[in-house]
Amino acid sequence: MNINTDPAKIEDILTRSVEEILPSKDEFRTALRLRIYIGTDATGSSLHLGHATNYMILEKLRQLGHEVIFLIGDFTSRIGDPTDKNDSARKQLTREEVIENTTTWLKQVVPVIDINNAENPVVLKYNHDWLAALTFEDIINLSSNFTVQQMIERDMFQKRIASGKPLYMHELFYPLMQGYDSVAMDVDVEMCGTDQKFNALAGRTLLRKLKDKEKFVFITRLLENPISGEKMMSKSLGTGVFLDFDANRMYGALMAQADENMRQLFEDCTWLTIPEIDNLMSELGPRDAKMRLAFTITEIYHGSEAAKVAEEAFVKTFQNKEVPDDIPELHPDPESTIIDILVETNIATSKSDARRAIEQGAVKLDGRKVDILEADRPLGAITTKVILQKGKRHFIALI
Fold first, then answer.
1. Tell me, what's the pLDDT at 46?
2. What's the order of all strands across the beta sheet hosting 363-365?
3. Residue 50 in contact with residue 108, Cβ under 8 Å?
4. Residue 182: pLDDT above 90?
5. Domains in the chain, please, with CATH?
6. How many CA atoms lie within 13 A of 327 on its CB side?
């Protein structure tokens, strides 16, 4: 297959959303067809915009003619990536759980990557195919390429050691397993976020030692608030924008993002060109620019009609302060509490998230703020419809 070497397109890929490319960018400017992969552990059922950033870059590389691999870490998911786990190990999943998560993921990425393209389809692989086949002798031989000192130099391991928290042996093998993915697929390039740099470099080491081959590591930036450094896609903070959100919820979640996040969200999560983004940011005020951002991203995942409906619902609810017409209804169990309902309906991500919202005065019942004592009591039988509200975006009718 011929490779498109358009300098403008290549330069856009090599600079936009990119944190670092190791050891250099030169290989991407040639007419060589590269085998490029991104691996994701299917540890949950929902992807967010941060994941989608990488898939959008992968799609641009696929359109240039490169071979792109979408690797599902169905084996590594069961072990659990220790990245960002400063206090404890990740829960180990069953293969059935991983496969179920994978099925939903593939549906979620369809709007941003043409998986079944007739001329250059995405190659779908699962690392269970080779990792499960390794013998103990294989693992000993592979692990001899690294030292314990190299493995425990990671920040999250150092923090656990310093605080006396357990560090399990299987967690030390995670970079080795992810690194072996590169060897098994004989790749030229691995794409990952900055949080995966350590693991990606382990693969670079293995590929060089076992196959005498150089691997390029394409590292994308994470979606982080440029002022506070907080992750934009935090489930625990309630700031995540997940790809399985319906159009109204996606639009509203984007409108809830901080103003200072807009530039990066435009660059990393839309197909708009940099000049188009420059014009929008200079010509529109913060509110209108954010509405354009919310519409543009919602349109990618739900289409223009759904994005228009979501925008109209947002304006009606938040600018005109009206209750939306099409809010969902629930017949709660009389023994359910308001906290139970917030979690059951995914309005809150957890009971602690629900309690935090209540303590902040963000939860209302028919316009009246709910306190924590009321929220902990069973509701009893509902005789007339009441509206449960969290913040400005979440409503549910209890009937």
1. 85
2. 329-330, 394-398, 386-390, 363-365, 368-369
3. no
4. yes
5. 7-220 (3.40.50.620), 247-319 (1.10.240.10), 329-398 (3.10.290.10)
6. 25
11, containing H or E segment: helix 7-15
Residue given tokens 């990618």 in the structure block: 300
Find the Cα–Cα–Cα–Cα dihedral 156, 222, 59, 8, rounded to 10°. -130
Please check whether residue 356 is in contact with residue 308, taking contact to mean a CB–CB distance below 8 angstroms. no
Range 29-46 burial, b when 16+ CB lie within 10 A, else e: eeeeebebbbbbbbbeee
The edge-to-edge listing of strands for the beta sheet with 189-193 is: 18-22, 216-220, 189-193, 35-40, 67-72, 123-126
pLDDT at 80 over 70: no
Q: Which residue has the higher pLDDT, 250 or 158?
A: 250
Number of residues that this document lists for the chain: 399
pLDDT in tens, 258-305: 899 999 999 999 999 999 999 999 998 888 999 999 999 999 999 999
| CB contact at 8 A, 67 and 123 | yes
Hey, what's the torsion of the CAs at 170, 172, 174, 177, to 10 degrees?
A: -100
